[in-house]
Write a structure and sequence with these properties.
This protein has 147 residues and is an alpha+beta fold. The protein has 6 helices and 7 strands. The protein has one domain: Aspartate Aminotransferase, domain 1, CATH 3.90.1150.
Length: 147
């Protein structure tokens, strides 16, 4: 099962020789990844603003109902490529993030990595095509059901 990376690259990573893994586990250089991901193309300036906004809105509007059907209660962000997904009270975000990765192969970012105010949330970046977002949301639901 591939690890589905739902994190967005940071600005500093874009300037490095960062290697990521593709679905089969082979390293993929960030520049090759940018050719396959519309969001990274947007980050690198390949889409105009209107097209990028429509793409992010479509990704958001596809992902939110699936997350909600899995038992999550995320708010609808107005303008962002990230979803902040609240977790059940008392569930540490790093614990959920670790289980999502180990049990379902989905990479998220624990809210605790952003400071005390982020605890109780995981951040999901809308950086892959909708079928992968939907499957990732369904897998995250399995983790939620198991905690």
């Amino acid at each position: 099962m591939p690890a589905w990376d739902l994190r967005a690259p940071k600005v500093g990573e874009q300037a490095t020789d960062l290697d990521l893994l593709d679905e089969s586990g082979r390293p993929v250089h960030l520049s090759a990844l940018a050719r396959r991901s519309p969001i990274l193309v947007l980050v690198f300036g390949g889409l105009d603003d209107a097209a990028g906004i429509r793409l992010l809105r479509d990704y958001r509007d596809t992902m939110l109902p699936v997350l909600r059907a899995q038992g999550f209660e995320p708010e609808t962000p107005r303008a962002t490529m990230y979803l902040w997904v609240p977790l059940p009270e008392g569930l540490p975000s790093a614990t959920f993030q670790r289980r999502a990765l180990q049990e379902e192969g989905v990479v998220t970012v624990p809210g605790s990595g952003f400071g005390a105010g982020g605890e109780g949330f995981v951040r999901i970046a809308l950086t892959v095509a909708t079928p992968r977002l939907v499957e990732a949301a369904e897998r995250l639901g399995k983790v939620l059901a198991a905690v």
